[in-house]
Amino acid sequence: MKKHNINLAVLLIFFFLGAACSSEPGIDKSKFKKLNASAHALKTARIGGASYRQLTEQAVNLSAEVIALKNKVTTKEEKELLDAYSDLSGMYHDGLLLWKYQLEFAPFDFVPKGRIYVGQDIEPIVSKYHFTTESHLYRPTGQQWKSLPEDSIMIVWNNADAQLKIIENMANYR
Fold first, then answer.
1. Taking Cα atoms as reference points, which of 123, 171, 167 lies closest to residue 148?
2. What is the pLDDT of residues 136-163, one digit of tens each?
3. What is the arithmetic mean of pLDDT over 88-104?
4. Which of 19, 102, 139, 150 is at 20 to 30 A from 73, Cα to Cα?
5. What are the two backbone dihedrals, phi and then psi, of residue 134, each rounded to the nearest 5 degrees?
6. Cα–Cα nearest to 134, from 155, 116, 110, 107
7. CB 19 within 8 Å of CB 136
8. Is the pTM of this model over 0.70?
9. Which of 119, 122, 114, 65 has its CA nearest to residue 96?
10. SS3 71
11. Distance between CA atoms of 35 and 28, rounded to whole angstroms?
């Protein structure tokens, strides 16, 4: 009987220690409410055909919400979730930069239809998403330059959609 009580006591100690060790709060969803709403508003605006200017405003709102939460996260899980939102914000920035180049260089005859001029600002995006580029020669100056397909923007948007799903899973299952 004593042996049984000792085993039970040891088992209870392990149970309470295990519960105490894992009692760190996960994610306080109320902290992320505005950030989550901003992320979904951005996706809705993009899918709804918002203009470049409108989508840029939504992306600025998302970035501002990320920055506003930086000093308010208290747990490891909240930091990871905020980092995921920060990555999402970066993806939208990448897509908007591609869109900006598409709009700005479309009127110039040297950029083929359906292509986006790859300038210095675009090079990191090309590397990040492993986009293939096409080389061109600007005959009047002999300058080499690159372009990428305009559907690269959609690839970035699809990555952003996937990132938002990851965020939803992190928020709901932690």
1. 123
2. 998 888 889 999 999 999 999 999 999 9
3. 98
4. 19
5. -120, 135
6. 116
7. no
8. yes
9. 122
10. coil
11. 13
